Amino acid sequence: MAKDFVVIAIPARFASSRFPGKPLAQLCGKPMIQHVYEKAAASSADLVLVATDDERIRQAVEQFGGRAVMTSESHPSGTDRIAEAVRLLDENAEIIINVQGDEPLIPTAVIDELIDTMRNHPEIEMATVAVPRERGSMDEDNVKVVFGADRFALYFSRAEIPFARKGGTPAPTYLHWGIYAYRRAALERFVALPPGVLENSEKLEQLRALENGIRIYVQLSNLTSIGVDTPADLEEAEKKLREENATA
Questions:
Q1: Taking the alpha carbons of 19, 223, 95, 151 in that order, is the dihedral positive or negative?
Q2: Which fold has domain 6-247?
């Protein structure tokens, strides 16, 4: 039986309130988007592309030998952007992996685990990744997730969940890692839905899926990455990358 065709789509836009031009920021001598692309290209996916609305990013991607797809400037989210990019493809993509363009240190193993999960479990419409974390930080940028015994997400929140009430039984806390896998039909259904009450409250688009009955499987990992949201994050990523290269 033929394996489902897997596309990794990396959404990348030039505009960013905290870090304009982030995908093209230099990291160890390469634009950051190239590091993400190379991590994705080393996976078992059939095709990797960058979905962008900016000609400068397209040119940079093609210069290092990658594939870029130009999309509309009006997309409200990266998910909408990758959905358009997939529609523009000639290939019959069945599984789409959304790898964020600001994750230059994402381990290829995490991507492969997610691909394997989707290929081996056709009943899963959508999947993501979570890592265990220490309690204590209430940083709203660190999104938390709780899931059931079947590993399907119950809720995502910027708040600390599950809440540790005094006298309650301690429960582990998991940090959501923003990499997603979709069946193509689920992706198309997702982007056609309007934002819901929970999504508008928490400003987390994955809640749109839960509000509308799209179940999200949570793949657990003990690996780590560094998301780059600011120039300070870029410095941290460069330090980490140089350490990894020194020990390779």
A1: negative
A2: Spore Coat Polysaccharide Biosynthesis Protein SpsA; Chain A (3.90.550)
Report the half-sphere exposure of 154 (CA within 13 A, side-chain side). 9
As given in the structure block, the two tokens for residue 110 are 């995490």
Partnered with residue 181 across adjacent β-strands are 97, 127
- The rounded Cα 52 to chain-centroid distance in angstroms is 15
Boundaries of every domain in the chain? 6-247
Q: Kindly compute the dihedral angle of the four CA atoms of residues 235, 239, 245, 246, in this order, to the nearest 10 degrees.
A: 150
Q: Are 78 and 187 in contact (CB under 8 A)?
A: no
- Grouping H, G, I as helix, E, B as strand and the rest as coil, residue 129 is strand
Strand partners, 156: 145
pLDDT in tens, 26-80: 999 999 999 999 999 999 999 999 999 999 999 999 999 999 999 998 888 889 9
> Looking at the DSSP assignment, which residues form a beta bridge with residue 8?
48, 97
pLDDT tens-place string over residues 108-156: 999 999 999 999 999 999 999 999 986 555 688 889 999 999 999 999 9
The CA–CA distances, whole Å, from 14 to 11, 17, 22, 37, 54 equal 10, 10, 7, 16, 6
> pTM for the whole thing?
0.93
Classify 27 as helix, strand or coil: strand
The answer to whether 130 and 221 are in contact (CB under 8 A) is yes
